[in-house]
Amino acid sequence: MRKAVYILILLFVFTGVNAQQTPQYTQNRLNYFSINPAMAGIKKCIDLKMGYRRQWVGFEGAPRTTFATVSTRLKIKKKVSPYSHHGVGVKVESDALGLTSNTKLHLAYAYHFKLGRESSASAGLFAGIEQFRFNVSRANAWQAPDPAIATNATVIIWPDVSPGIFVHNKKWFGGFSIRQLLGNRIRDYGTGTNQLRRHFELLGGAKIESSESVSIIPSAMFRFTFLSMPSIDLNLMFDFENRA
Q1: Which of 236, 169, 235, 242 is CA-nearest to residue 212?
Q2: How many CB atoms neighbour CB 99 within 10 A?
Q3: Which of 101, 119, 173, 191 is deepest in the core (most CB within 10 A)?
Q4: Ramachandran bin of 190, using left for φ above 0, alpha for ψ from -120 to 50, beta for the remaining angles
Q5: CA geometry: angle at 49 spanning 42 and 16, to 5°?
Q6: pLDDT tens for residues 94-134?
């Protein structure tokens, strides 16, 4: 009975991971650009960030995520409005789980503009390619040949597009993005058809001044797809003399 319980738990965990299909980050507040292209060029400097995440330490084939992003503003003399500017960026992600791995390369563009006297908004787009790889050499089938295991289509490449919007002022901020907008179908992997699910991500937060030099910044991110359980991430940061 105890073994059966362990098997059920593992099946539940792996089912949840398969439903995600996109890299997950625990510290979203530190790199919103990785999930929302509208953040490209929001800072006046060149913003370069790298990260690595490993889950389920001690398990063979445990999830591993690596990313690198860079974004900056474009210096364009001719502008639609004196309060507008353009942003560009590049994002590279690698997500590995068991025998499979996903590598993504995206270029980003964002247009920033004023929204009233105190607020600003931006709209952006990620456009790039995604590569899916299945390591057949490491697969051990109980009964060979196994039709559920691809034998000739171990590398698949398809286009990917992800839009996003972001609104902010000195007191609050919010954004919305959609990953894997195209919902591509992978028809030549295994025996069936695998479809990439669209991931909707809604974020919001506020900046609360507790003193002249210290501010509290609570934020939340809500993720959901149409066929899996939603999730929410809560973050809390302290801003000391505008250094958060």
Answers
A1: 242
A2: 16
A3: 173
A4: left
A5: 100
A6: 999 888 888 999 999 999 999 988 999 999 999 999 998 87
Query: Up-side HSE of residue 46: CA atoms within 13 Å toward CB?
Result: 3
Q: What is the dihedral of CA 42, 47, 52, 53, to 10 degrees?
A: -20
CB-based contacts of 208-214 (< 8 A; 24+ apart in sequence): 213/240, 213/241, 214/238, 214/239, 214/240
3-state secondary structure of 2: helix
**Would you list the DSSP string of 8-48?**
HHHHHHHHHHHHH-S---S-GGG-GGGT-GGGTT-SSS-EE
Q: Record the tokens describing residue 186, joined without a space.
A: 């992978």
Residue showing tokens 């289509």: 153
How far is it, in rounded angstroms, from Cα 71 to Cα 42?
A: 9
Residue 117: Cβ-neighbour burial (10 angstroms; 0-12, 13-18, 19+): exposed
Between the two ends of the chain, the Cα-to-Cα distance in Å is 50
Answer whether 0.85 is exceeded by the pTM.
Answer: no
Output the CA–CA distances (angstroms, integers) from residue 61 to 136, 143, 205, in the order listed: 14, 22, 35
Note the pLDDT tens digit of each residue in 211-226.
878 899 999 999 999 8
Q: Residue 180 corresponds to which amino acid?
A: Q
Exposed/middle/buried for residue 161 (C-beta within 10 Å: 0-12, 13-18, 19+): middle
Those residues whose C-beta lies under 8 Å from the C-beta of residue 6, and which sit 6 or more positions away, are none
